Amino acid sequence: MSIKPCRPKWKGTMTDRERFNAQMHYKPIDRCFNMEFGYWDENFKEWSIFVENGITNNREADIFFNFDRIEVIRGNVWMSPPFEVRVVDETPTSKILINEDGLLAEVPKDGHDTIPHFIKSSIVTPEDWKRCKEERFRRDDPARKVDIEALKKIHPTDRDYPLGVDTGSMIGKIRDMLTFEGLAYACYDYPDMVEDMVETCCVLVEDFLDQVLPHFDFDFASGWEDICFKNGPIVSVDFFKNVVVPRYKRINKKLKEAAIDIWYTDCDGDVRPLLPYFLEGGINCLFPFEVNGCSHPKELLDEYGKELRIMGGVDKIELGKGKDAIKAYLETLIPLVERGGYIPFCDHRCPPNVKEEDYLYYLDLKEEMFGMK
Q1: Whole domain around residue 91: which residue ranges?
Q2: CB atoms near residue 299 (< 10 Å)
Q3: Which one of 38, 45, 99, 133 is separated from 57 by 20 to 30 angstroms, measured CA to CA?
Q4: How many C-beta atoms surround the C-beta of residue 188 within 10 A?
């Protein structure tokens, strides 16, 4: 389907790639990089602007709103093959299923966006992990081989947009596999097992990077580590520092050798206890930076200076309060955009309680405040 943008692209004198790199390195820019993180599935069914124009997912929405382009090359760095998803029981309102990470999970029948209720993991003991590792984490799995030539056709050398390389997850996906409680117990009951899981994740990412780094001039690296909630990290700081950070350093060595010096990770919640160790490991950008579970982005940008970058940090709670609240919040971000190292957008998927007309006002106001004068 050919998507017709509903609004013109922000005016500019730089390419999207030039602008992203300059902004992330605190250099002069023509205007702010314009992007958003996306929307809940309900938005595509409830906002008339999406329904009437046939927009059904975040990829289409990015084109529809004419945002600056940003892309990431991802690898097969997790379970391969994943568990077969199958329903094992049903209630009047929910399904009980085995998900692709091997978790017994309860999900609503109506399909609305929510975190599933995880009942039990398929992997509890070292014996479970040994079997799963042999079956689903083989380094020599042919499915892990990257089709370099196909990617070169998609992302040519003369591209005008920033291109990132994904670094997977060192501990967040392990949390997904074990459950929150399961990981907490395993760190104490089976610490060697958990460290072997982290090492396995690291090696699979290293194998992927070895395949792609020689062939592309990447602008940044990205990762995913949802291991914090509103009260802080769900793993101990000592565990993170002693087990996870050494693996980040190995990955960062490869990134630096490929001249990649911007590395963000997607981690929700209060990241402040882990931030010094993210930085020590080479991760120097936070994304999408949840305000309500952490702080206003100014707090950390003031504390860490140009050592840190932030992408996101527009409080979705304020977006839901209407135009006055939106304007008041965006005004607090003006000095951060002017300073550099900060790209503002909603601090997670935009939820459906945000009114459509207020969201369009937000997009217009962003252009007025952060577009080319």
Answers
A1: 84-121
A2: 12
A3: 99
A4: 10
Listed residue (11, 23, 39) closest to 362, CA to CA = 39
Per-residue tokens: 370:
């952060």
pTM: 0.95
Residues 242, 298, single domain; the answer is yes
Specify the number of domains making up the chain. Answer: 2
How far apart (Å, rounded) are the C-alpha atoms in residues 247 and 293? 26
Structure tokens at 294: 């952490």
229 lies in the same domain as 290: yes
Take residue 134 and report the two structure tokens written for it.
């042999």
373 residues of the chain, pLDDT tens digit each = 689 999 999 999 999 999 999 999 999 999 999 999 999 999 999 999 999 999 999 999 999 999 999 999 999 999 999 999 999 999 888 999 999 999 988 888 877 767 778 888 989 999 999 999 999 999 999 999 999 999 999 999 999 999 999 999 999 999 999 998 899 899 999 999 999 999 999 999 999 999 999 999 999 999 999 888 788 888 899 999 999 999 999 999 999 999 999 999 998 888 999 999 999 999 999 999 999 889 999 999 999 999 999 999 999 999 999 999 999 999 999 999 999 999 999 999 999 999 999 999 999 999 999 999 8
User: Is the link from the previous residue into 81 a cis peptide, with omega within 30 of 0?
Assistant: yes
